[in-house]
Amino acid sequence: MNYLKKFDNFPDFDYFSRNYRQFESDFHELSAMKVPLTFFTDDIRATMRATGDTFFILDASNCKEMVKIRFDFELNDDIYSYKGYVRLNGKYE
């Protein structure tokens, strides 16, 4: 099975939009990981599709601020639009 074919029917990011560029900027500002976001987008899309969620969480160990960060999206016409992020400081958030 072709690796890329597996993701053909998944909702996608609008990579050339202003909101995606803002997501990219926020992610790199907050993330302590050395790997660029480009290498994570398929995994992020697959996870959000599998769970039905429109967010993903960057755990504290991968965050420069050492707190969990939730990146929120809105799904319209199979396109994820970035809405912003929230710092999750509580134990059960």
Compute the number of structural domains: 1
The succession of helices and strands, N to C, reads EHHEEE
Distance between the termini: 38 Å
Count helical runs: 2
Helix fraction bin: 25-40%
Low-confidence stretches: none
Strand segment count: 4
Largest β sheet strand count, sense and barrel closure: 4 strands, mixed
pLDDT averaged over residues: 88
Strand content: 25-35%
Sequence of strands across the biggest β-sheet: 1-4-3-2
What structural class results from the helix and strand content? alpha+beta
What would you report as the Rg, rounded to the nearest angstrom? 13 Å
Q: What general outline do the C-alpha atoms trace? A: globular
Structure, described:
With 93 residues, this protein is of the alpha+beta class. It has 2 helices and 4 strands; from the N terminus they run E-H-H-E-E-E. The chain has a 4-stranded mixed sheet with strand order 1-4-3-2. Strand 3 and strand 4 form a beta hairpin. It is globular, with a radius of gyration of 13 Å. The termini are far apart.
Which descriptors would you attach to this protein?
4-stranded mixed beta sheet, alpha+beta, DUF5960
Quick structural overview:
The chain has helices at 18-30, 41-51, and strands at residues 12-13, 55-58, 68-76, 79-88. The chain has 93 residues and is of the alpha+beta class.
Topology, element by element:
Elements: E1 12-13, H1 18-30, H2 41-51, E2 55-58, E3 68-76, E4 79-88
Parallel strand pairs: 1-4
Antiparallel strand pairs: 2-3, 3-4
Pfam families: DUF5960 (PF19385)
